[in-house]
Amino acid sequence: MKIGILTLPIAENYGGILQAVALYRLLDAQEHDVVLIYKQSTNTQVWWKKIIKEILLKIPFHNFRNMKNNNKLNEARLERKKFHRPFIEKEIFKISEDLYTKQDLENFAKKENFDAVIVGSDQVWRKAYINDKYYKSYFLDFVDGSKTKKIAYAASFGKDFWEGKGDSQEIAKLLQDFVAVSVRESSGVVICKDTFDYDKAVHVLDPTMLMSKEFYKDEIIAKYDAVNTNAGGLLTYVLDEAEEKKEIIEFVQKSADMKSVHHLKGFDSSQVTYSVPQWLASFANADAVVTDSFHGMVFSIIFEKDFVVIGNEGRGMDRFVSLTTKLGLEERLVFDVKDLEGKELEKIDYSRVNMILNSEKKKSLEFLMGALHGE
């Protein structure tokens, strides 16, 4: 089949890159002809805003709306984007040119003549993250449903409600044109039903969890010679620094008697930009993990590590709750060091976790294959 995948623009976010790689490589291994549809935000195209920004940045002794500091952060993001692009292009074999508008997407879809277009995974249905007037593209409004199957795989709203206003009926109509809809969080099933009157949504795994740990070890870590990155000890990967998170890390280090600590990001890290293979190897090599990242938690589970995940409300709590509940790992989700004090975290029984995970993986694959090949 000729299949298009639409996800949020993959650039510097490790989880965002790896979920796209996983879904792409899963379908490619089945000998489908797969293309990543690379939609960019139209906000990057507004020429007059760029001119005004350039003028303001050149004016000395002022920092309008913290523009100069934000510009430095954006420049750093662009550097990281350039750094990760070669890996993305090696692991995702076909990528479209940058597409911005609904018309761009329509023209590309017609040219490619897709048998199916899959939207997902990650927070593709979180309006604040899309940040684009063409956000309905992520509900595949540019795809002709009479010729091409529309499928949502592990789409995430990020929160337990739809962030849009006054557009529920239009999105409800778009969802009715899908042959199959699946979401990454159990709350997504409820949103589809209560907000969009769509009662056929299915709860599935993030695509990274459809691939085995051997895939990540052999096809990525070993292939890129990243095997010895940050070997052993406690690994921390903290996206949003806060004092209570530092206390949790110190508590875990002390209680687990970890002599060495590797900070991938946050606190005492050297702010080195790790390659995707090095990032993965850090999780594969760790003895234990503390993170506030969803995909940090996911790869702790894939590599069968003892971990503590710190609830990250700003980046979307439902995905943490949904996965830990599904796998019976609720006690691993904490919000404050008080959630750990007086408790002894036993080693995770991965024989039990993997039984559940394998069952959920089977259901998720059956959904995806049924959507692609079913009538």
Keywords:
375 residues; alpha/beta; Rossmann fold; 11 strands
Account of the 3D structure:
- The protein is of the alpha/beta class and 375 residues long.
- The chain folds into 2 domains: 2-209 and 359-373, Glycogen Phosphorylase B (Rossmann fold); 213-344, Rossmann fold, CATH 3.40.50.
- Helices cover 43% and strands 13% of the residues.
- The chain has 13 helices and 11 strands.
- It has helices at residues 14-29, 47-58, 67-91, 102-112, 127-130, 168-175, 186-196, 213-222, 243-255, 276-285, 294-302, 318-326, 350-373; strands at residues 2-6, 33-37, 116-119, 149-155, 180-183, 202-203, 234-237, 261-265, 288-291, 306-310, 333-334.
- The strands form 2 sheets. It has a 6-stranded parallel beta sheet, sandwiched between helices. A 5-stranded parallel beta sheet has the order 8-7-9-10-11, sandwiched between helices.
- Helix 1 (14-29) links the parallel strand 1 (2-6) and strand 2.
- The mean pLDDT is 91.
CATH topology of the largest domain: Rossmann fold
Q: What percent of the residues sit in helical stretches (DSSP H or I)?
A: 40-55%
Give the H and E element order. Answer: EHEHHHEHEHEHEHEHEHEHEHEH
CATH superfamily of the largest domain: Glycogen Phosphorylase B
CATH class of the largest domain: Alpha Beta
Strand order of the largest sheet: 2-1-3-4-5-6
Q: What is the distance, rounded to the nearest whole angstrom, between the alpha carbons of the first and last residues?
A: 14 Å
Largest sheet: 6 strands, parallel
What is the structural class?
alpha/beta
Total number of β-strand segments? Answer: 11
Q: Please give the radius of gyration in angstroms.
A: 21 Å
